[in-house]
Amino acid sequence: MFPLKFFKMKHTISLRATLILAFLLIGSIPVFIQSPVMLGSYKQNLIDSRMQDIQNQCWILSNKMTRSGYLTSEPKDPLLDNEMSVKADMFNGRIVIVNRSFRIIRDTFSLSLGKINVSEEVIRCFGGENSNKYNSEKRYSALTIPIYSNSQDKEIDGVMIVTASTEDLLNRVSQVSEKGSLLNIMIISILAIIAVILAKLVMKPFRDLQRLLNRASEGNMDEPISSHAYKETMEITDSINQTLKKLKAVDQSREEFVSNVSHELKTPITSIRVLADSLIGMEDAPVELYREFMGDISVEIERESKIIDDLLALVRMDKTSGGNLNIAQVNINGLLELILKRLRPIAGKRNVELIFESIREVTADVDEMKLSLALSNLVENAIKYNIESGWVRVTLDADHKFFYVKVADSGIGIPEEFQEHVFERFYRVDKARSRETGGTGLGLSITKKIILMHQGALKLQSKDGEGTTFTVRIPLTYIS
After folding, report:
1. Could you give the CA distance from residue 384 to residue 343 in angstroms, rounded to a whole number?
2. What pLDDT, on the 0 to 100 scale, is given for residue 271?
3. Three-class DSSP category at 359
4. How far is CA 298 from CA 38, 263, 303, 407, in A?
5. What is the spatial distance between Cα 95 and Cα 158, in angstroms, rounded to a whole number?
6. What is the phi/psi pair of residue 461, to 5°?
7. What does the buried/exposed string (b/e) look like for 448-460 if buried means 16 or more CB atoms within 10 Å of the residue's CB?
8. What are the distances in angstroms from CA 278 to CA 136, 150, 275, 289?
9. What's the confidence (pLDDT) of residue 435?
10. Which of 373, 23, 426 has its CA nearest to residue 200?
11. What residues have CB less than 8 Å from 382, skipping those under 6 apart?
12. Which of 362-388 are b and which e, b meaning 16 or more Cβ less than 10 Å from the residue's Cβ?
């Protein structure tokens, strides 16, 4: 058995080969159609011309017979007999004369003299109806020509039956056909050369594009990819440049992320080491100082643990991309009340008032644990980055398709130039204050990721010094 990849490669055809075949077909089809049509027309013209010539020659002979009274005279005119034989030989055929009694009185083959011929064509000819037929199977033409009497009434006294072979004409057509076949081969050969050249010209922009892509795949992503030969290549290059731009942004983001992770994990460890080294270097340090330093070390360890937990949460969500949600019917009102109850002690320390406005009862398909984490992050941030004796208002509403959670605060706000970056990992508007409040810079990234996993949306409205409002919109019914 062959692998699937083998069959895919086997049935893959290049665009250049397809273009060559297409050009060949477009050029060859008229040739193949035209050749038999022209050959058939040439053959028919030859046969029609031959039959017309035979008819004219026989009419002349018939008129001579009429003037000489050939049918009634005895003996027969030897000159007419000789002319009849010559014409029969010239037509590579046979001439038979039938009189009014339907008796054959002259046969250039001398095979039927004295015999009776009452064929349908002869009878019709005596009735004034000439016949002119061609038998394609036996390759001969047959004509009937009337012979009139030499009297005033011009009655038909006899019938001339002429059969003429077309074998020589068909041989000539065969010769023309052979020469035509050679000509067709020459034309198709020229068409093949032209098709290869045209395909090469058509494919040149695509080969240039492939060369640039190969260089990009080797790591040279700074060189712009441009091909404006065709509208299609221009659209392709625009899409590729957009993709490369995003890839470079992702690569840069990854580098920044690694740098930030290293920095964030290193900072608490550095603090712990400084505190530990200070304790080791002290002799007979008081117990109170030991306790203070150990308390600081504990805080730094907790901070390190929180950073690691948030990083693991992000990694898990990146890997699952929404495929690991434990969806269930959850009462959103009860969930928000539980979150606010859990965060009230933190708000109380800063004298921040928590307000919950429930416009209607809402039940939705969500992952309760993950959504609780996302909403907790929003409310906790609103508390931490608030003013003393401020407020945080959480509003719940819904329509027939979505439910909405609005978290508004009276805090310090976010300057407009920083708003598009707040969902980036480890991004902090005020780094000093973030560390004072114990933030890791990952909370909003985790929140947005969870909301997107629920096929929702997260919007930010804020003014520097006037507070911030986050609005969450999530479908009531989760559709995978």
Report:
1. 11
2. 74
3. coil
4. 100, 19, 9, 32
5. 13
6. -130, 125
7. bbbbebbebebee
8. 118, 152, 5, 11
9. 47
10. 23
11. 392, 407, 408, 409, 411, 468, 470
12. bebbbbbebbbbbbbbbbbbbbbbbee
User: In the numeric block, which tokens belong to residue 109?
Assistant: 């083959």
End-to-end Cα spacing for the chain: 37
Residue 393: the pLDDT is 95
The position carrying tokens 């404006």 is 228
**Count of other CB atoms within 10 angstroms of residue 433:** 13
pLDDT at 190 over 80: yes
The helix/strand count (H/E) of the chain reads as: 11, 12
Q: How far apart are CA 448 and CA 313, in angstroms?
A: 13
Between helices 368-384 and 443-453, what is the axis angle to 10°?
A: 140
Q: What is the mean pLDDT of the chain?
A: 82
The alpha-helical segments, DSSP class H, found in 69-140 are 78-90, 120-126
Can you give the three-state secondary structure of 165-189, one letter per residue? ECHHHHHHHHHHHHHHHHHHHHHHH
- With beta carbons less than 8 A apart as the criterion, state whether 384 and 411 touch: no
How far CA 412 is from CA of 245, 380, 388, 420, in Å, comes to 34, 14, 10, 17
In tens, the pLDDT along 125-175 reads: 988 888 888 888 888 889 999 999 887 777 898 999 999 998 888 888 888
Higher per-residue pLDDT: 200 or 458:
458
95 in Cβ contact with 108 (< 8 Å): yes
The residues pairing with 470 across neighbouring beta strands, listed in sequence order, are 407, 460
* pLDDT 10s digits, 422-451: 777 655 555 444 444 445 567 788 888 889
d(CA 395, CA 475): 16
Rounded (10°) angle between helices 332-349 and 368-384:
30
Largest CA distance in the chain: 168
